[in-house]
Amino acid sequence: MNDSRRKVFVAGHKGMVGSAIVRRLESEGAYEIITRSRKELDLLDQEAVQAFMRSEQVDEVYLAAAKVGGIHANNTFPAEFIYENLIIECNLINAAHQAGVQKLLFLGSSCIYPKFAEQPMSEDALLTGVLEPTNEPYAIAKIAGIKLCESYNRQYGRDYRSVMPTNLYGPNDNFHPENSHVIPALIRRFHAAVNAGDSEVVIWGSGNPMREFLHVDDMAAASFHVMNLDTDSYQANTQPMLSHINVGTGVDCTIRELAETIARVTGYEGRLIFDSSKPDGTPRKLMDVSRLRALGWEASISLEDGLASAYEWFKSNADNVRA
Asked: Whole-structure pTM over 0.90, yes or no?
């Protein structure tokens, strides 16, 4: 092994985002990638995390580990969502600092922004209004992660950066029928409907909310890009108290349009029924990605192409998907 290769710890490497970051780092060929499964390292265990960071002496950390889920999961398990996410990021960020790790990238979520934030949502919308109630605990935990990074930067001169992705999808997504996000839930539902010959598929909500979606391989590419920006370029496009950067496509669609696209990709030809008795969540969530574009990165995978590849991955891994 070339001793000059940088050691990088990817926390959450079995998840959708973490596994995409690992793939991206492997393609670069210049990193020694360190990973640990949940059985090998419980990120909720402060002492275990501190001991791991001391012993491994990594150069960089990608903090992609998190407890995630859709509207139903966030509504059902709010205590677990705020507690586990707070503990994971507190343990890892503080342990990285104590171990002398200078570079860390924290992955947050677009839900950090107020429910009725001006669209598209820019980074300075943070903490300017009330959050969407259905995922407020999760959002507060992610906001805390941003502020943790900013605080260690201010007090100790660390280089801890934060990226806020829009809605993600792709390989290794969670396809649970109730606790997953909208794209994997619909892919699974339409796939089952095609196989069963169902005449209709019921979809939560009115279909009117607008959402932006980013393929996880694009997210990994953006994360790598932001992590490797030189300090002057990064700081020139951020502020000392506003260090996070939005990651998205800058393009959104309605949930109805999304469902119609997934139906087309999966070959489903039945009726789509929208159940308006179910919650819609935030009316619109579109990211202002002008800051990231100024830093030299744009998404490259179109929604339909990304959905088609995600569906092919699902069919190839249907017996082993997270569910």
From this structure: yes
Catalytic residues: 138
Q: Is residue 311 part of a domain?
A: no
Count the domains in the chain: 1
Cα–Cα dist 85/42, whole Å: 13
306 is in an annotated binding site: no
CATH of the domain at 100: 3.40.50.720
* CA gap 287, 168 in Å, rounded: 13
Which one-letter DSSP state was computed for residue 5?
S
* Mean pLDDT score, 187-211: 95
Task: Judge whether 183 lies within some domain.
Answer: no
Task: Tell me: is residue 284 an annotated ligand-binding position.
Answer: no
Q: How many helices (H) and strands (E) does the chain have?
A: 11, 13
| Residue 189, both tokens | 């539902």
pLDDT tens profile 251-267: 999 999 999 999 999 99
d(CA 231, CA 55): 27
109 among the known binding-site residues? Answer: yes
The boundaries of the domain holding residue 246 are 6-173+212-250+285-301
Distance (Å, rounded) from C-alpha 224 to C-alpha 203? 35
In a domain, 240, yes or no: yes
